[in-house]
Each structure stands twice: as C-alpha cells, then as structure tokens.
Amino acid sequence: MLEERLSQLEAENLKLKEQLDRQENKKKNRRKLGWNFLKRSSGMILGAQLKKSIEKFLDEIAEQQRVSRETLSDLLSSIIIRLTRVGFLLILTAVLPSVLLIFQTYYLGKQNTLITGQSEMFKQQNKRLDQQTYLQEADRRGQTLLIMDNMLKEINTDVSRSSANAIDDATAGRLISLSKMLKPYKYLENDSLIARVTSPERGYLLVSLLETGINLNTSTRSRSNGRLIERLDFTYAELRNLSLKGADLIQIDLAHADLRNSSFNGTDFEKANLQNAWLHETNLTYTSFKEANLEQAILQNAILDYANLQNANLSSADLRNVSLLKTKLLDADLTNARVNETFERDATQQLNKDQSEWLFSNFEVVEIDDDHYQLLPIDN
C-alpha cells in the first residue's frame, strides 16, 4: 500500500516537472523571440554602426569592468552621426510637405492665369462675334443708300416742278416707308463698337431733304393724314459734326438722336421731340426749343445763348457746364436736371434778371450725392 502511494507520488512529481519544464521553455522561447526582435529592430533604429559600438561598449564593461577611450569615442561618434541623420530626416519630413504645397500653389496660380486668359479670349471672341453681327447689319443697311439716292432724285425733280416745294403723295409714301426702313444699328469706330445704336442713314436723309428745299410741313393725303415732318421717322438719327443753321424742324421727332459737336444756330425745334438725345458741346445759339421735349437729353457743355426754352420739358436733362447767356427759361420743367455745384451763381450771371428770379424761386440746387447736383422744385 505504501509502495503504491510512493509510486503515485513519483508519477505526479514527474508530471509537475514536465509542466515546469514546458513553462520554462516557453518563457525562454518568448525571451529569445523578444531579444531577436529587439536586436533586429535596434539595428534598424540605431543603425549598424551604433549597434556595434554599443555591443563593444557592453562587452568591455562585462569583461574588463572598464571602457577604453577608443571605444567610448567610437560610441559617441556613432551617437552623433545617428542623431544627425535622424534630425535630417525629421527636417526633410517637415520641409517636404511645405515644398510640395509651394509647388502646388505655383501651378494652381499658373492654372488660374491660364483660365483667366481663356476667359478673356472668350470675351474677345464674343465681342468679335457681336461686331461681326453689327457689321453685317451695317453692310445690309448700306445697300439701301442706292435706293435712297434714287428717291432723292425723284424728290428733287418734284420739288423743282412745284411752286410750294412739295412732292406728290406717291413719292411721300415711299419716303415715309424709307425713313422707317433705315433702322438704327451699331458700327465700328476706332476698332470698337459705338456706345449705342444710331442710324447715319436717317441723318443723311434729313440733311439731304433739307438741301433739296423740300417743304416738310406740307400735308400728305393718305389714310393717316398729317404733316410730312410728323410722319417721317428720324429717331436715332446721327447728325454729328455738321452745321444746320436756320432750319425749320418744328415738331420733328429726334428722340435718341446723336447731335454731338454740331451747330444748329437759329434752328426752330418748337414742339420737337428730343427725348434722350445727345447734344454734347452743340452750338444751339438762338435756337428755339419752345414747348419741346428734352427729357433726359444730354446737353453737357452745350451753348444755349439766346435760346428759347419756354415751356420746354428739361426734366432729368444733363445741364452741366451749359452756357445760358440771355436764355429764356420761363415755365420750363427743370425737375431733377443735373447741374454743377456753381450752377446758381453761373446762371444768375448769365440770365436776365426776370429769368433768374423765376428760375431760383421755383428750383433749388441740391446735392444728391458726392459731386452730383440736381435742380429740385421748391414747394411754394
């Protein structure tokens, strides 16, 4: 019984030893693996030269309990070299994204420049297409000059035969149709399209009719009876840089017409429509605009000396730097007309006393915003 118990204890003891041996072997294997990994990783991290220097340093301590000067200097040199390399890599790692960002910004800037240039090219292309369209229209209008010249020959013949300088109804009808057919358009001037549409042909037609001596105030017999000058279409007519003195243009419609830098000395525009017309630097001395519509007309730098503007509509007109010497303004509508800051002083010096008193008892110069002055009615 005792022997069996001893045998059993010996067997259990062997099992326990085997378990302890297995556990010890596992620990050794784990240590070995950890050490091998540490050796390999330390070689990668520290570098081969620094690793050798450390091993030599540790070996000398273990064997000799001291370290030679050569080993120590070799270890320090290896440490400095390794730190320098790591620092360089860190600097390179920090600088490289910044360099890449600079290059990216540079190429993005070039790309934006190219896109901007492309947009400008598209704008130029669209501008040229617009010019081409208007030039085609101008060319088509130019073909009507031949029809106009033939018409003027007929008119000249009729006027020479008539004691009243009149034309027959058939010719008048064709003339009215022709004036409506000569529609406004834009054309190139100094390699750019003019600012707004105009009709040089209508201006040419009006001047030519006046040169023939035709009586534009004669009546025409047709479905729509009326004076010839009322039925002809001269809106948007171009009458720039010409001299037209003493003409009878009563009730003519010259809305949106371009009359810049011209002279209409003594011309009668009574009850005429000159709404939104261009009259920059135009000589209008002794001109009559009695009861005429000059709403939004641009009269900047115009000469209105001795002109008659009684009962005329000058609302929202541009009257900056106009000359008003002895001009008649009684009962004219000057509401919102644009003027200079010194308009009251200048007008008082130029107008007759009664005209000046009437003007500034009904209107006052008001500053709307910076360097923008208008005439506003005074509540009486």
Short summary of the structure?
This protein is mainly α.
Question: What does this molecule look like?
Answer:
It is a single chain. This protein has 380 residues and is mostly helical. 53% of the residues lie in helices and 6% in strands. It contains nine helices and seven strands, in the order αααααββαββαβααββ. The strands form three sheets. A three-stranded antiparallel sheet has the order 5-7-6. α1 (2-46) crosses α2 (48-64). It is elongated and about 165 Å long. The mean pLDDT is 81.
- Strand runs, count: 7
Helix content: 40-55%
| Largest sheet entry | 3 strands, antiparallel
User: Overall pLDDT, averaged?
Assistant: 81
Uncertain regions spanning at least 5 consecutive residues: none
If you compute it from the alpha carbons, what radius of gyration comes out, rounded to the nearest whole angstrom? 51 Å
How much strand content do the residues show?
Answer: 5-15%
Strand order in space, largest sheet: 5-7-6
Order of helices and strands: HHHHHEEHEEHEHHEE
Q: Gap between N and C termini, in Å?
A: 145 Å
Q: With helices defined by DSSP (H or I, 4 residues minimum), what is the helix count?
A: 9
Report the structural category: mainly alpha
What coarse outline follows from CA principal-axis ratios? Answer: elongated
Multimer state: single chain
